[in-house]
Amino acid sequence: MAQFGIDPAPFTLTGTDIPVSPMAWGMWRFAGQGVEKAQHLVETALDNGITLFDTADIYGFGEEGFGKAEELLGQVLGLNPSLRENMVLASKGGITPPVPYDSSRDYLMRALDASLQRLQVDHIDLYQIHRPDILTHPQELAMTLDSMVASGRVRAVGVSNFTMAQIAALKEYLNAPLVTTQPEFSPLHLHPIEDGQLDQAMQHRIAVLAWSPLGGGRLIKPETEREKSVAEALQAIADEQSVSLAAAAMGWLMAHPARVIPIIGSQNPKRIADATKALTMQWTRDQWYDVLVASRGEPLP
User: Which GO terms describe its cellular component (predicted)?
Assistant: First the structure.
Protein backbone atom coordinates (compact mmCIF):
# COMPACT_ATOMS: atom_id res chain seq x y z
CA MET A 1 0.00 0.00 0.00
CA ALA A 2 1.31 3.45 -0.94
CA GLN A 3 2.80 5.49 1.85
CA PHE A 4 3.32 9.19 2.17
CA GLY A 5 5.78 10.95 4.42
CA ILE A 6 6.27 14.35 5.97
CA ASP A 7 8.52 16.89 4.29
CA PRO A 8 11.18 17.77 6.90
CA ALA A 9 12.49 20.75 4.94
CA PRO A 10 11.77 24.33 5.99
CA PHE A 11 9.35 26.23 3.79
CA THR A 12 8.91 29.93 3.14
CA LEU A 13 5.93 31.85 4.46
CA THR A 14 3.82 33.16 1.58
CA GLY A 15 4.89 36.53 0.22
CA THR A 16 7.97 36.69 2.44
CA ASP A 17 11.54 35.47 2.53
CA ILE A 18 11.05 33.87 5.95
CA PRO A 19 11.81 30.11 6.04
CA VAL A 20 10.12 28.25 8.90
CA SER A 21 10.69 24.77 10.28
CA PRO A 22 7.90 22.19 9.91
CA MET A 23 7.47 22.13 13.69
CA ALA A 24 7.40 24.99 16.20
CA TRP A 25 8.18 25.27 19.87
CA GLY A 26 5.74 27.14 22.09
CA MET A 27 6.37 29.07 25.29
CA TRP A 28 3.00 29.03 27.02
CA ARG A 29 4.65 27.43 30.09
CA PHE A 30 8.10 28.97 29.59
CA ALA A 31 7.89 31.68 32.26
CA GLY A 32 9.22 31.04 35.76
CA GLN A 33 12.31 29.05 34.81
CA GLY A 34 15.84 30.17 35.43
CA VAL A 35 17.77 31.76 32.60
CA GLU A 36 20.18 28.83 32.39
CA LYS A 37 17.40 26.28 31.96
CA ALA A 38 15.59 28.60 29.56
CA GLN A 39 18.70 28.85 27.39
CA HIS A 40 19.05 25.07 27.39
CA LEU A 41 15.48 24.71 26.15
CA VAL A 42 16.03 27.21 23.35
CA GLU A 43 19.24 25.45 22.32
CA THR A 44 17.52 22.05 22.45
CA ALA A 45 14.84 23.24 20.04
CA LEU A 46 17.43 24.71 17.66
CA ASP A 47 19.62 21.60 17.86
CA ASN A 48 16.63 19.50 16.81
CA GLY A 49 15.89 21.60 13.75
CA ILE A 50 13.15 23.79 15.23
CA THR A 51 13.63 27.41 14.19
CA LEU A 52 10.09 28.72 14.71
CA PHE A 53 9.58 29.95 18.30
CA ASP A 54 6.03 30.90 19.30
CA THR A 55 5.35 33.09 22.31
CA ALA A 56 2.84 35.79 23.33
CA ASP A 57 2.77 38.83 25.58
CA ILE A 58 0.18 37.24 27.86
CA TYR A 59 2.19 34.06 28.42
CA GLY A 60 3.09 33.93 32.08
CA PHE A 61 -0.07 35.68 33.19
CA GLY A 62 -1.41 34.09 36.32
CA GLU A 63 1.43 32.42 38.17
CA GLU A 64 4.31 34.52 36.89
CA GLY A 65 2.84 37.65 35.37
CA PHE A 66 1.89 39.24 32.07
CA GLY A 67 4.88 39.42 29.73
CA LYS A 68 7.10 37.13 31.76
CA ALA A 69 7.64 34.54 29.00
CA GLU A 70 8.78 37.24 26.59
CA GLU A 71 10.91 38.78 29.31
CA LEU A 72 12.68 35.49 30.03
CA LEU A 73 13.33 34.86 26.35
CA GLY A 74 14.67 38.39 26.12
CA GLN A 75 17.12 37.66 28.91
CA VAL A 76 18.32 34.57 27.06
CA LEU A 77 18.75 36.51 23.82
CA GLY A 78 20.41 39.39 25.62
CA LEU A 79 23.06 37.06 27.00
CA ASN A 80 23.38 35.07 23.77
CA PRO A 81 22.58 37.33 20.78
CA SER A 82 23.77 34.70 18.30
CA LEU A 83 20.72 32.54 19.12
CA ARG A 84 18.48 35.16 17.53
CA GLU A 85 20.22 34.73 14.16
CA ASN A 86 18.92 31.17 13.82
CA MET A 87 15.43 31.85 15.14
CA VAL A 88 12.16 32.84 13.53
CA LEU A 89 10.62 34.74 16.43
CA ALA A 90 6.82 34.80 16.63
CA SER A 91 4.76 36.58 19.24
CA LYS A 92 1.14 37.53 19.77
CA GLY A 93 -0.78 40.44 21.22
CA GLY A 94 -4.33 41.63 21.67
CA ILE A 95 -5.41 40.12 25.00
CA THR A 96 -5.65 42.40 28.03
CA PRO A 97 -5.85 40.45 31.31
CA PRO A 98 -7.85 38.88 32.64
CA VAL A 99 -10.20 38.41 29.65
CA PRO A 100 -11.02 41.38 27.33
CA TYR A 101 -9.60 41.58 23.83
CA ASP A 102 -8.29 44.79 22.31
CA SER A 103 -7.14 45.08 18.70
CA SER A 104 -7.48 48.85 18.49
CA ARG A 105 -4.60 50.62 16.80
CA ASP A 106 -3.50 52.46 19.92
CA TYR A 107 -3.41 49.33 22.05
CA LEU A 108 -1.68 47.07 19.54
CA MET A 109 1.04 49.64 18.79
CA ARG A 110 1.76 49.92 22.51
CA ALA A 111 1.66 46.13 22.86
CA LEU A 112 4.18 45.69 20.05
CA ASP A 113 6.55 48.24 21.58
CA ALA A 114 6.32 46.49 24.94
CA SER A 115 6.97 43.07 23.39
CA LEU A 116 10.05 44.34 21.54
CA GLN A 117 11.38 45.82 24.77
CA ARG A 118 10.80 42.63 26.77
CA LEU A 119 12.31 40.45 24.04
CA GLN A 120 15.32 42.80 23.67
CA VAL A 121 15.03 42.75 19.86
CA ASP A 122 14.42 45.39 17.22
CA HIS A 123 11.90 43.36 15.24
CA ILE A 124 9.57 40.37 15.49
CA ASP A 125 9.50 38.01 12.52
CA LEU A 126 5.84 37.04 12.88
CA TYR A 127 3.33 39.09 14.86
CA GLN A 128 -0.07 37.48 15.36
CA ILE A 129 -3.35 38.79 16.76
CA HIS A 130 -4.00 36.41 19.63
CA ARG A 131 -7.81 36.49 19.71
CA PRO A 132 -10.32 38.34 17.52
CA ASP A 133 -11.60 41.58 18.99
CA ILE A 134 -15.23 41.86 17.86
CA LEU A 135 -15.23 45.60 18.57
CA THR A 136 -12.41 46.39 16.12
CA HIS A 137 -13.32 46.78 12.46
CA PRO A 138 -11.14 44.59 10.19
CA GLN A 139 -10.13 47.67 8.23
CA GLU A 140 -8.66 49.27 11.36
CA LEU A 141 -6.85 46.06 12.24
CA ALA A 142 -5.50 45.73 8.70
CA MET A 143 -4.19 49.31 8.75
CA THR A 144 -2.48 48.61 12.07
CA LEU A 145 -0.82 45.43 10.84
CA ASP A 146 0.27 47.11 7.61
CA SER A 147 1.82 49.92 9.65
CA MET A 148 3.74 47.41 11.74
CA VAL A 149 5.19 45.80 8.64
CA ALA A 150 5.96 49.15 6.99
CA SER A 151 7.84 50.27 10.11
CA GLY A 152 10.22 47.29 9.89
CA ARG A 153 9.42 46.24 13.45
CA VAL A 154 7.39 43.28 12.13
CA ARG A 155 8.31 41.17 9.11
CA ALA A 156 5.05 39.26 8.67
CA VAL A 157 1.61 39.06 10.24
CA GLY A 158 -0.88 36.36 11.15
CA VAL A 159 -3.88 35.58 13.32
CA SER A 160 -4.76 33.12 16.05
CA ASN A 161 -8.18 31.67 16.88
CA PHE A 162 -9.90 33.57 14.05
CA THR A 163 -12.88 32.12 12.20
CA MET A 164 -12.87 31.70 8.44
CA ALA A 165 -15.16 34.72 8.06
CA GLN A 166 -12.91 36.87 10.25
CA ILE A 167 -9.88 35.86 8.19
CA ALA A 168 -11.69 36.65 4.94
CA ALA A 169 -12.78 40.06 6.23
CA LEU A 170 -9.27 40.97 7.37
CA LYS A 171 -7.72 39.86 4.08
CA GLU A 172 -10.13 42.15 2.23
CA TYR A 173 -8.40 45.19 3.74
CA LEU A 174 -4.87 43.94 4.38
CA ASN A 175 -2.07 44.90 1.99
CA ALA A 176 0.62 42.73 3.60
CA PRO A 177 0.09 38.99 3.09
CA LEU A 178 -1.65 37.16 5.91
CA VAL A 179 0.86 34.34 6.36
CA THR A 180 -0.36 32.29 9.34
CA THR A 181 -3.45 31.19 11.20
CA GLN A 182 -3.23 29.46 14.56
CA PRO A 183 -6.23 27.30 15.53
CA GLU A 184 -6.55 24.62 18.13
CA PHE A 185 -6.05 21.37 16.22
CA SER A 186 -5.36 17.83 17.36
CA PRO A 187 -6.61 14.29 16.70
CA LEU A 188 -9.18 15.10 19.40
CA HIS A 189 -10.11 18.56 18.10
CA LEU A 190 -11.08 18.27 14.44
CA HIS A 191 -12.77 21.63 13.86
CA PRO A 192 -10.12 22.92 11.39
CA ILE A 193 -10.80 19.88 9.18
CA GLU A 194 -14.56 19.95 9.52
CA ASP A 195 -15.34 23.67 9.28
CA GLY A 196 -13.14 24.43 6.27
CA GLN A 197 -10.28 26.25 8.01
CA LEU A 198 -7.63 24.03 6.46
CA ASP A 199 -9.22 24.34 3.04
CA GLN A 200 -9.18 28.12 3.33
CA ALA A 201 -5.56 28.01 4.42
CA MET A 202 -4.60 25.91 1.41
CA GLN A 203 -6.61 28.16 -0.90
CA HIS A 204 -4.75 31.28 0.25
CA ARG A 205 -1.42 29.61 1.05
CA ILE A 206 -1.69 30.48 4.74
CA ALA A 207 0.52 28.42 7.06
CA VAL A 208 -1.37 26.63 9.85
CA LEU A 209 0.18 26.56 13.33
CA ALA A 210 -1.65 24.03 15.51
CA TRP A 211 -1.85 24.78 19.22
CA SER A 212 -2.54 22.00 21.74
CA PRO A 213 -1.66 19.23 19.25
CA LEU A 214 -1.88 16.61 22.02
CA GLY A 215 -5.37 17.66 23.04
CA GLY A 216 -4.19 19.35 26.20
CA GLY A 217 -2.42 16.16 27.27
CA ARG A 218 -5.57 14.03 26.97
CA LEU A 219 -3.95 11.84 24.33
CA ILE A 220 -1.11 10.99 26.70
CA LYS A 221 -3.45 10.30 29.61
CA PRO A 222 -6.77 9.37 27.98
CA GLU A 223 -9.81 9.04 30.22
CA THR A 224 -12.93 8.87 28.05
CA GLU A 225 -13.70 6.06 25.64
CA ARG A 226 -13.18 8.41 22.69
CA GLU A 227 -9.80 9.55 23.98
CA LYS A 228 -8.74 5.95 24.55
CA SER A 229 -9.86 4.92 21.06
CA VAL A 230 -7.85 7.72 19.41
CA ALA A 231 -4.82 6.99 21.59
CA GLU A 232 -4.97 3.30 20.63
CA ALA A 233 -5.11 4.12 16.92
CA LEU A 234 -2.11 6.42 17.28
CA GLN A 235 -0.21 3.95 19.44
CA ALA A 236 -0.54 1.27 16.78
CA ILE A 237 1.30 3.36 14.19
CA ALA A 238 3.70 4.68 16.83
CA ASP A 239 4.75 1.15 17.79
CA GLU A 240 5.16 0.16 14.16
CA GLN A 241 7.52 3.07 13.47
CA SER A 242 9.29 3.21 16.85
CA VAL A 243 8.14 6.67 17.82
CA SER A 244 6.19 7.90 20.81
CA LEU A 245 2.45 8.43 20.84
CA ALA A 246 3.08 12.17 21.10
CA ALA A 247 5.22 12.11 17.98
CA ALA A 248 2.60 10.07 16.15
CA ALA A 249 -0.11 12.60 17.06
CA MET A 250 1.97 15.43 15.65
CA GLY A 251 2.87 13.35 12.62
CA TRP A 252 -0.83 12.83 11.97
CA LEU A 253 -1.34 16.59 11.83
CA MET A 254 1.69 17.16 9.60
CA ALA A 255 0.55 14.49 7.14
CA HIS A 256 -2.33 16.75 6.11
CA PRO A 257 -1.64 18.49 2.76
CA ALA A 258 -1.98 21.91 4.42
CA ARG A 259 1.47 21.23 5.91
CA VAL A 260 0.26 21.89 9.45
CA ILE A 261 2.96 23.09 11.87
CA PRO A 262 2.32 21.59 15.32
CA ILE A 263 3.49 23.69 18.26
CA ILE A 264 5.40 21.56 20.76
CA GLY A 265 4.38 22.79 24.18
CA SER A 266 6.68 20.70 26.36
CA GLN A 267 9.31 22.39 28.49
CA ASN A 268 11.20 19.11 28.83
CA PRO A 269 14.29 18.84 26.57
CA LYS A 270 13.90 15.09 26.05
CA ARG A 271 10.27 15.46 25.02
CA ILE A 272 11.11 18.28 22.63
CA ALA A 273 13.68 16.08 20.92
CA ASP A 274 11.31 13.11 20.98
CA ALA A 275 8.51 15.07 19.31
CA THR A 276 10.67 15.86 16.28
CA LYS A 277 10.80 12.15 15.43
CA ALA A 278 7.39 12.75 13.89
CA LEU A 279 9.30 14.02 10.86
CA THR A 280 10.53 10.49 10.12
CA MET A 281 7.07 8.97 9.89
CA GLN A 282 5.43 7.35 6.88
CA TRP A 283 1.66 6.99 6.68
CA THR A 284 -0.77 4.97 4.62
CA ARG A 285 -4.21 6.37 3.94
CA ASP A 286 -5.70 3.52 5.99
CA GLN A 287 -3.60 4.47 9.03
CA TRP A 288 -4.41 8.16 8.77
CA TYR A 289 -8.13 7.59 8.33
CA ASP A 290 -8.16 5.05 11.19
CA VAL A 291 -7.26 7.90 13.54
CA LEU A 292 -9.91 10.14 12.02
CA VAL A 293 -12.58 7.47 12.36
CA ALA A 294 -11.59 6.84 15.99
CA SER A 295 -11.93 10.54 16.73
CA ARG A 296 -15.29 10.91 14.98
CA GLY A 297 -16.62 7.73 16.55
CA GLU A 298 -18.33 6.59 13.38
CA PRO A 299 -17.32 4.94 10.12
CA LEU A 300 -16.58 6.96 7.01
CA PRO A 301 -19.66 7.44 4.82
Answer: cytosol
pLDDT score for 3: 85
Contact between residue 105 and residue 129 where contact means Cβ atoms under 8 Å apart: no
The pLDDT tens digits of the residues spanning 31-56 come to 999 999 999 999 999 999 999 999 99
Of 212, 279, 204, whose CA–CA distance to 22 is shortest? Answer: 279
Identify the helix (H) or strand (E) that includes residue 269.
helix 269-275
| Type of residue found at 17 | D
Q: Which residues of the chain have pLDDT under 50?
A: none
The H-or-E segment that residue 69 falls in is helix 68-79
Q: Give the active site residues.
A: 59
Asked whether residue 50 is assigned to any structural domain, the reply reads yes
The whole-number pLDDT of residue 266 equals 96
pLDDT attached to residue 32: 93
Q: 296 lies in a domain?
A: no
Does the residue 29 lie in any domain? yes
Is 191:185 a contact under the CB 8 Å cutoff?
Answer: yes
Number of domains in the chain: 1
Q: Is 14 within a domain?
A: yes
Helix or strand or coil: residue 19?
strand
Which pLDDT does position 20 carry in this prediction?
Answer: 97
Q: Strand pairing partners for 3?
A: 284
What is the Cα–Cα distance from 25 to 183, expressed in whole angstroms?
15
CA angle 279, 285, 290 (to 5 degrees): 95
What is the extent of the structural domain holding 166?
A: 3-217+256-266
> Beta strand 124-129 with 88-93: parallel, antiparallel or unpaired?
parallel
